[in-house]
Here is the input.
Amino acid sequence: MNYKLLRRFTLIRSLVIYLIIMDYQEIIDGINEVMNREIPMLLSLTEEQVSVRRNSQNRTVKMLVGHLIDSASNNHQRMVRLQYAPRCGHSMPNTEMGMLVFPDYTQDNDLWIELQDYQHEDWHQLVMLLKLYNQHICHVIRSVDKTKLNNYWIDYEGCRVTLDAMIRGYINHLNLHFGQIHELL
Here is the structure.
C-alpha cells in the first residue's frame, strides 16, 4: 500500500473518530443538563406529589423515575455487552449460538415497576440512584470503543439497533419521561 494513501486513510479515520467523540460529548452534555435541571426539581417534590397522582398509564412520578432507572440499567447492559459481543445481540427467541441475547423488557415495563415496588421506595434514594446511574451512563458513553459502534442487536420487533443509535436515542427517552413527569405535576 502506498505510504501517502495509508497516511491519508489514517488522517480521515482519526477525523471521523474525533467527530464522533465531539458528537458524543454533546450527548453527554445533554444528559448532564437534564440531570442538573431535573434532579433538584424531583428532590423538591412532596411524597404526595410523587405517590398519588397517576398518568394515563397508571404511573405515578415515583413509578416513572423507577422506569427511567430500569431503562438506564437495560441500556447500560446493552452498551457494555455490544462492545464485546461475538456478533450481535438478539432479543428474539431461538437465536443461533454465539449471539448475545438481550431479554426484551419493553412489553414488561409495568411488571418491572411492580416487582421492584418503586411506589414504596424511599424517594431520595430513588432520585439519587437515577442521578448516579446517569452519571455512569455518561462515563460509559465517553469510554465506548468507537470501532464497535456498528455492533447491533435485534429488538423484539425485529429492528436492528446499533450501539451508536442506542447512545444517540438515550436522551430522547429521558426527555420523553421527564415530560410525562411534568405533565403529572
Observations:
- The chain has a mean pLDDT of 84.
- Residues 3-43 form the longest helix (41 residues).
- Strands lie at 89-90, 100-101, 152-154, 160-162.
